């Protein structure tokens, strides 16, 4: 999704991960997808886009309810995309790819940083879920997880812990960093591709290429689960799209 277009071909009804663009010492997942144009781009400004939801909003029931999906995708995510594109126009932001945005995140305005993360993170989130997902991953990704975390249960426990211990709003992630799988979390709409050197000690420095991400903002679960983030996280495992996670493993 680093291509500068207002409308793109959605390839094979899924994100096409090309893993090509270098961010610092890391690679960043590149996606190609159709866009939902939020604002009219200027002649040369890069635009963030919103991927079409790859399944019906009710199809993640009962784990994630249709109303939450509708508001999450149509209101929250759409607003992130519109707002970052507004910021690009208003602030004359020069970066031409998402990779450039995130590599320079500490230099961005609060509006541009939060909304660029919100736009990308949610595009990613929709793709790493699917109806009738979940289960125990097999093949290369299963082996990699077992190798890094000793067992799938150990991995699941660590990612759940990262999601539960993120105070307030943020994301929990499985990333690849210099050939190693790591688990961690980021605040607000930050992601592990961002330069977070401006954050306070203890919040900065979780870096890597996302393979799996979990939105733990209350807007992701409050309508169905209210304050029970633990139940949302437990049920979210039932919709993980391991095929998409595996595609990002290189
Ligand atoms: Fe969200």
Task: Describe the fold and architecture.
This protein is of the alpha+beta class. The protein has eight helices and five strands. The strands form two sheets. Strands 4-3-5 form a three-stranded antiparallel sheet, sandwiched between helices. Strands 1-2 form a two-stranded antiparallel ribbon. The longest helix is centred in the first third of the chain and has 26 residues, at 66-91. The two termini are 18 Å apart. Residues 72, 76, 122, 215, 217, 219-220 line the site of fe (ii) ion. Residues 72, 76, 122, 215, 217, 219-220 line the site of fe (ii) ion (FE2).
Strand content: 5-15%
Ligand identities: fe (ii) ion
* Poorly predicted runs of 5 or more residues: 1-39
Helicity range of the residues?
Answer: 25-40%
Task: Provide the residue-averaged pLDDT.
Answer: 85
Secondary-structure map:
Blueprint (H helix, E strand, L loop, with lengths): L20 E3 L2 E3 L37 H26 L6 H6 L6 H18 L11 H11 L2 H14 L4 E8 L2 E8 L21 E7 L6 H4 L3 H8 L5 H6 L3
Antiparallel strand pairs: 1-2, 3-4, 3-5
Helix pairs in contact: 1-3
The site of fe (ii) ion has 7 residues, from α1.
Concise overview:
It contains eight helices and five strands; from the N terminus they run ββαααααβββααα. Helix 1 packs antiparallel against helix 3 (110-127). The protein is an alpha+beta fold.
List keywords for this structure.
alpha+beta; 8 helices; 250 residues; 3-stranded antiparallel sheet
């Amino acid at each position: 999704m680093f291509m500068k277009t207002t409308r793109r071909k959605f390839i094979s009804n899924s994100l096409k991960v090309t893993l090509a663009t270098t961010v610092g010492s890391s690679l960043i997942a590149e996606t190609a997808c159709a866009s939902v144009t939020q604002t009219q781009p200027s002649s040369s400004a890069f635009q963030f886009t919103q991927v079409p939801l790859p399944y019906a909003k009710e199809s993640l029931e009962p784990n994630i309810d249709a109303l939450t999906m509708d508001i999450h995708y149509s209101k929250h995510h759409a607003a992130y995309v519109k707002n970052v594109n507004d910021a690009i126009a208003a602030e004359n932001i020069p970066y031409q790819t998402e990779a450039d945005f995130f590599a320079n995140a500490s230099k961005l305005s609060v509006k541009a940083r939060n909304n660029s993360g919100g736009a990308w993170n949610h595009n990613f989130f929709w793709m790493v879920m699917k109806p009738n997902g979940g289960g125990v991953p097999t093949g290369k990704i299963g082996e990699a997880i077992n190798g890094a975390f000793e067992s799938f249960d150990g991995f699941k426990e660590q990612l759940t812990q990262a999601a539960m211990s993120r105070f307030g709003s943020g994301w929990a992630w499985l990333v690849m960093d210099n050939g190693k799988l790591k688990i961690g979390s980021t605040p607000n709409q930050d992601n592990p591709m961002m330069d977070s050197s401006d954050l306070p000690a203890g919040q900065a420095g979780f870096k890597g290429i996302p393979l799996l991400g979990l939105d733990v903002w209350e807007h992701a679960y409050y309508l169905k689960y209210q304050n029970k983030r633990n139940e949302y996280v437990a049920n979210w495992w039932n919709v993980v799209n391991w095929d998409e996670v595996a595609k990002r493993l290189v």
